[in-house]
Amino acid sequence: MTEDPLERIEREEREKKANKGPKTMMTILAVVAVILAGVLAYMLYQRNTLVNQLEGEKEELAQQMVALQQDFSTLSSDYEAINHQLDTSREQVAMLIEKLSKTEATNRAKIRQYEKELGTLRTIMKGYIVQIDSLNTLNKKLTADAAAARREAEESRRWNQQLSQQVENLSSQVSAGKVLRARAISLAGYYSNDKVGERHSRVRYMVASLSLVENSLADRGPLRVYVRVKDPEGVLLMNNESVEFTVNGETLQATASREVDYEGQEVDMSIYINDTGEYMKGVYTLEVYTEQSLLGRAECLLR
Predict the structure, then answer these.
(1) What is the pLDDT of residues 57-67, one digit of tens each?
(2) Cβ atoms of residues 138 and 79 within 8 Å
(3) Chain centroid offset of residue 182 CA
(4) In sequence order, what are the beta bridge partners of 210?
């Protein structure tokens, strides 16, 4: 059966109207979806940008903390109390760095709190620098004052030492001036007829002669002179007149001795050496002493 053309046209129009509603809705939904996707993409972009910005701020804050830690490591002091405070502040910086590393960059509250703590530690470090500089300046002044005091003390000590040395030198000069001197010291052998001789077989005794030099500074009064005579073999001649004496802390044996009254004027004297046994050929040596010093030496050759 052939469809009426008019009915066909009406049917097609009805079908077009029925299909038009769903297509419009799908178009609207598609547009909304595109808009939502754009908004979401924009929000994700904004979020990523903010996160990157916060990560950058966190990294910069971490670098500032590390720089402060390095600054603290260079500070030092000669004072125990300040060093203890520095150690405490170093520990605080290390703990702050550790807390920051465990905190998300998006935690703005914590990040701001750490910034404030970093600022406080910076202020504390500046205070340490001022305090250490002040103490170092004071210490330098005290060191300079102490050095000046030491120099003055050293100058005083040196001056006193010089004075003491001068006094000692004068005392030594006086002591040296008081020491007796002797001249014309000699030793000779004598025969039984009291004549000087050199034949050892005929010598019966020996005589030591000398002159005590004039000395106005020397002690006046009785003075004993000691002689030591050694034979050619270096053996000290001894007899019943031999005595011990001490000179410069050393005890010696004397062959003979004699006491004279010394009044500062020159005194000629002789000391006899008797009863020492037979004499041998060779050189005899003589040493003359007082209890102050050695006056001199002489030799005598017996043939």
Answers:
(1) 888 888 888 88
(2) no
(3) 55
(4) 269
